[in-house]
Task: structure prediction
Amino acid sequence: MSLYRKIALFLAVMGPGIITANIDNDASGITTYSVAGARFGYALLWTLIPTTVALVVIQEMVARMGVVTGKGLSDLIRENYGVKSTFYMMAALLIANFGTTLANFAGWAASMDILGLSKYVMVPIGAVSVWFLVTKGSYRAVERVLLFACLLYFGYVISGLMAKPDWFPVFKNTFVPQIKWDSEYAILSIAIIGTTITPWMQFYLQSSIAEKGIRKEDYKASRLDVILGCSITDIIAFFIIVTCAATLFPSGIRINEASEAAIALKPLAGEYASFIFALCLANGSLLGVIIVPLATAYYICEAMGWEAGINKTFREAPQFMWIYTALIVVSALVILIPGAPLVFLMILASVVNGILLPFVLIYALSLVNNAKIMGEYVNPKSYNYISWGTIVVIICLTVFFVVTSIMPAGGKI
Amino acid sequence: MPFFSELFVSEILRKPVLDPRGEELGRVKDLVVVKGEPLPKISSLVIEKKRKLFNLPWSDLSIFNKRIIAANIYGAGLQSYELREEDLLVARDIFDKQIVDANGAKVVRVNDVKLEGLNTEAVLLAVDVGMRGIMRRLGVERGGEDLMGFLRMSLPHNLISWNYIQPLEPKLTAISLTVTRQMVAELHPADLAAIISQVSRKEGAILFKGLDAETAAEALSELEPGTQAAIITGMDTDKAADIIEEMPPDEAADVISDLSAEKAQEILGSLEKEDAEDIQELMGHEEDTAGGIMTNAFIAYRPETSVKEAIESFRRDAEEVETIYYIYVTDAEEKLKGVVSLRELLLSPPETKLSDIMVTKFKTVTPETDEMQVAGIISKYNLVALPVVDSEGFILGIVAVDDIIDRILPPAAKRKRRKV
Result:
């Protein structure tokens, strides 16, 4: 195949991997990276490389399943493990994704606050316009909004450059791991992995690849899409950490929220850097608000065999429309009610996510090794060692993360 | 024989099977289904004892209901059983799979299977696709009923009779009924397309294979280009060519231009020469221009033709042509001279010549005209079709209103299934 044809093929297949990667850096991702940069400077940068590797290993398998079977992950789990596993998994996914939506609305509210707009106006506006864009807007409109939103992520690269980091320690810390025996350090490094590898993303990626109908013959191009996407995710993460590490860390500013980072940036890196940081947070949050509730409603309905579809009415697809609408409305309301247990709900969601992740990964790995489903595309034996190794490490870290989240003595994140 | 009344398969899974002395032979693991008339029937039970599987033929059962399942043989008489791919098992192969509800024209998922006693057999009566089925499988049907009762609502029974079910997997297709296959073929092509776009490519192709060339052609033109290409690529060339031949040339050209160069050549090669030329001519135009959406199947007669002759020819020609509401009047060189509407043709005296009744002031576009401009003209002048002519006035084809509407407001099956 000529180089030109290869490029043309790649352009036709790309998309799912890169979009999935972008929405991975939603409000909770941005928060984790900002906190990590502000608290430990460049010291945690090295975690991004193993995280990227783990992300590629897992997403490659999920993408391969999407290409070979043409079905989503929730369909495959339902068809092979029955209604019970599926039901509990979907129930957990619903709770976890409620938390994710909540986190994204919180990110949206906070960034609007920085830009001087009241959350009591902007959260309802955001919720209503997202609901209308998705249910009433045309496919082209939604796609344009998404692509534009994905481009906005490069704002973080700009704010990273504006922070004028000292590049030598940046690269040294990226490639040379630094182990500190500090509980906060350990928790933050696990949180970086936890926020990057989430259960719902696996569902999203596999469905969007199945949706796109990529053929087995073009699988190589799809793999490139996944690898590129995973790298972009972590390059953005890299610049978020660098921004906070170059500015907030030397001044000893500790933060708990991404929005605090944006405010703290103002005197240190200038008004523009602060503005861009806040704008990117708003963008990432809104992207999450658009996709997470919608994706959740789709996976649940497909797995349970309920009618699903954007253009359907409440009468035609009641479960779908109610799940989708309730996720948006309830999350927006929780943000607006003063004194709502926001922190508790988000911790609950991340714990449920943590409990869900091992199941999703183990199911995915056993499905990808099922010759009846995958045919000749099962994992090669050597690759299985890498996958199992990755998954076992992630599971151990997640269990540790869940335990420390439940016991607040471990620190706060 | 043993079976009366109805029951759901999930109610008897893991239930003990007793021998005549009342001792346990094993527990129900699954049920083997075979083709039957009028409905598929249970041929044996698969039972499990101490991790070993046994096959218990239906004829050896003495009691079979929700509460008691008993056989008239003893443990020593059981034949051992190994899970085989060829066998069709209810729990393994039917539960949780997607099927087509031919009556409701949609894809659903099997939550449970309902059996009924018919003569001495147990037949597959219906599948449960509702919330009740899910709750029964989770073991909380009673609780769900109470909860809904408390809320003063009822938990609906959502059953689809086996008569309306078309399975999607090759193995299951073997037990689908002739009635259903006819029903699926009779669905509106747009509904068929919606169903095909909702299932995986492989399953869509299986459903597609069962259709006759004409229905297949109509359903195919309602699908999104990627799916069209995948389905045609997966077919053998002869069958694909049959389907392409049934399509109007403009739609055929759209489908073929999305195929790989090799496959496209193969298919064009096995078409009739004239059809292949028509299609190739259309493939030369940009997709979003008048040339890209026009068809070269239209009706055209000479100016000196009488109305009587025209109506006679029309009866013959209209069979093959999609848009018949305008008769184009062309000279010997195929230059477009005028347009006669079908209404005008039918209302005029038989001896009149077409040149007397044709409209000579009509709208045309060139092949390069943008599709939105074409839509604008069609909408403004309330046309059913718009002729496409080259710079010298030769007619190349027509753009019909349904083709332009498909471009502006594509039906759901033509768009990506999901919006994000």
